[in-house]
Amino acid sequence: MRIRKGEIREGVFKDISRFLRKNDVLVLNESKVFPARIFGKKDTGGKVEILLLKNLREGVWEVMTKPGLKKGQKIVFEEKLLGEVKKGQENELTAKIEFNQKEVAERLNLAKKQGKRIIAVGTTSLRALESMSDQKGHLRWGSKETEIFIYQRAVY
């Protein structure tokens, strides 16, 4: 679906290149389900399995880990994702890990500042961008629930 100045056009995704310009930025949803279990390496080189339980605040999660972690340990995940243990699991079932903040919002804000169009591919990507934008359209990193709904009117 393409919406431009109130005009709605429908098509198929394979034809998207007809609507794109040279400097456009596509935002895609690559997730299938919530990635509650992630794997990383401790700064000592050992492997660690982390089960994300609860988002406590922006970038900080309550987790269960195997093996247990100590406060101050650093965890390396895919590419640029890093975590630091803020509360260890010494005598408790859970720990707290703070993750660095996955540079996507900064890159999208920069692209917008440079005059590039940001194109959401799919409703999940669109809802994520809308939910994380402020009144001026500036994106911030994080997670939150949304009450933005996309409705399609039936035309008879």
Describe this structure in words.
With 156 residues, the chain is mainly beta. The chain has two domains: 2-30 and 103-131, no CATH class; 37-99, Thrombin, subunit H (Beta Barrel), CATH 2.40.10.240. Helix content is 12%, strand content 33%. It contains two helices and ten strands. Strands 4-5-6-9-8-7 form a six-stranded antiparallel barrel. It has a two-stranded antiparallel ribbon with strand order 1-2. The longest helix is centred in the last third of the chain and has 10 residues, at 104-113. It is elongated and about 60 Å long. The mean pLDDT is 81.
Order of strands, main sheet, comes to: 4-5-6-9-8-7
Relevant CATH superfamily of the largest domain: QueA-like
Count structural domains: 2
Coarse structural class: mainly beta
So what's the overall shape? elongated
* SSE string: EEEEEEEEEHEH
Poorly predicted regions are: none
Percent strand equals 25-35%
CATH-level-2 architecture of the largest domain: Beta Barrel
Radius of gyration: 20 Å
Distance between the termini: 18 Å
Helix content: 10-25%
Q: Provide mean pLDDT, rounded.
A: 81
Total count of helical runs of at least 4 residues: 2
- β-strand number: 10
- CATH class membership of the largest domain: Mainly Beta
Summarize the structure.
By secondary structure, the chain is mainly beta. It has helices at 104-113, 123-131, and strands at residues 2-4, 7-9, 25-28, 37-42, 47-57, 60-66, 74-76, 82-87, 95-99, 118-121. A hairpin with a 5-residue loop joins strand 7 (74-76) and strand 8 (82-87).
